[in-house]
Amino acid sequence: MAGRSDGATHLDRTDRRGFYRRAAIASGSIAYEVPHRRRAARVAPSIAVARSGGVRQHLASARHHLSLEPRQAYAGSRIERAAFYRGDDAALAAMTADDRARYYVIAGELAVLKKRGEAFDPLFSPTEAAALGAARDTVFLGLMDEAPRFGAGLDAEAVAPLKARDDLKLIDLRTIAVQAIVAAEHVPPLAEAKSVLGWHARHRFCPNCGAVTALAQGGWRRDCPSCKAEHFPRTDPVVIMLAIAGERCVLGRSPRFPQTMWSCLAGFAEPGESIEEAVRREVHEEVGLTCARVRYFASQPWPFPSSLMIGCHAEALTDKIVIDRSEIEEARWFDRDELKLMLTRKHPHGLTTPPPIAIAHHIIRAFVEHGGDVLA
Ligand SMILES: [Zn+2]
């Protein structure tokens, strides 16, 4: 019910902004209005995270030194999405013409960056972006520090010629996050751009009637001119969880992991399933354990191509691991002491957990620090 009342509050605010904006435009005083809601988040990010429900508040306060949100990649965006402008062609045109407008450019699956000596800049002016090639789709991402931000999507065919240029670097978003190749504030909007532009690339035809669809609402909808259906960008929920019993928890290894890395179990939530049901089913399918209590921990957008990782802890009632080899190659129990060695890269056999950019790292870390309290 809390979510529902939050939503209602947000709608009220949006309506109010719309009123102010219409009044201002009618009086000719502004081209478009800049909202200020995000400023509070910049001043006190930890409070903003707690309010947003990104981390359960008692855990966030207990381990404030971990500063989870800034270190976890793709989440914690400073972009004000300003969704009330999406349907406003005049405001969108004004923002496109704004001197402060900048573009994040995605070519195929890769981000395009400008080389600046040893550093890399992901922001292109409208002129610079246009010079890279005709964008297949352009999306209004929102406002950052009151400046309009757009995402421009280039076809995969543009990748090879752009890669050949000395003044550019084309790189995937995992590497950008792991190696901190761009300033941290750019990683969430790059993820936003990649996810929504990827959705446009894969949804050119109406699933109802097969007609070619058209981008609408500043890039946050595709409309079918034939059957009039409206299609919205989607994100796919993935549950990622740590099954725990007393001082121990279960980690697994996928064949695609680096040789020494162990992580949480994970899988897509299916239609008709709650998060809790998806957690219990995935744990049972992958390692044969039965779980009871499930507690939400935090979430992370994961733009490969467009998932939302929903992090949970689960109470394991059974002990015997039965591995589904089609999903994972190994799984076993780890106690908190061994996990601590893995997190701190001091394990005698070199075993590791995923890096801090991944939510799995923080789910495991919370168990190391708080033990069974994560299920409280
Ligand atoms: Zn249609």
Structure description:
The protein has helices spanning 2-27, 37-43, 45-52, 57-62, 68-71, 89-97, 126-132, 159-163, 173-178, 187-202, 275-287, 336-343, 359-370, and strands at 102-107, 110-116, 119-121, 137-144, 147-154, 168-171, 214-216, 221-223, 230-231, 236-245, 248-253, 265-268, 291-302, 307-316, 330-335. Helix 2 (37-43) packs across helix 3 (45-52) and helix 12 (336-343) crosses helix 13. The strands form three sheets. Strands 1, 2, 3, 4, 5 and 6 form a six-stranded mixed beta sheet that branches. Strands 10, 11, 12, 13, 14 and 15 form a six-stranded mixed beta sheet that branches. A three-stranded antiparallel beta sheet has the order 7-8-9, with no helix packed on it. It is globular and about 60 Å long. The protein has 376 residues and is an alpha+beta fold. The relative contact order is 0.11. The chain is built from 13 helices and 15 strands.
Q: What labels describe this entry?
A:
alpha+beta, six-stranded mixed β-sheet, 13 helices, 15 strands, 34% helix, 24% strand, disordered N terminus, binds zinc ion
